[in-house]
């Protein structure tokens, strides 16, 4: 059975993390249900010089052309597409990653808000006792931010701040991005050959 993952891009800095993760998921033949906020599109254009089309179908075609992935591996939904599989516990993938995750999105999920499909999808994964990975990118973190992230952790989410390590001796920004993506892939139970594991001389 094909593994399915819901992936959400929100308006936090760190578009490169999300794009690299998307590339790796598609390369491993994982079916991706992609959700993109309006703020995320601004961040992608600003940080990554990548202008994601606003319409779901146009965005899907754009990404497929960029990645060369098979069309059946990618579905893109609008923020109000309440009939998408992600919106219901009877159909949603059991794994979801929000990368990068804005503190606003984290707050909404922590307090059970479901004003858009990203928030609803995350709520569904938590209530169905699935696997929700949150990759926040903010600094410094206020007490409010920390309390919201703690609430998510208590609810069962895995909080993975975009804070790459340096023991793999990164030589570029891409190396730092790969560190985080490798850890996310580990948690999703997927193979990764991006970064050498601790204690090993070669990439595993």
From TrEMBL:
GO terms for molecular function: 4-hydroxy-3-polyprenylbenzoate decarboxylase activity. It catalyses: dimethylallyl phosphate + FMNH2 = prenylated FMNH2 + phosphate. Dimethylallyl phosphate binds at residues 167, 183. It comes from the Bacteria. Signal peptide: none annotated. This is Flavin prenyltransferase UbiX. Gene3D superfamilies: Flavin prenyltransferase-like (3.40.50.1950). The gene is ubiX. Belongs to the UbiX/PAD1 family. The keyword Transferase applies.
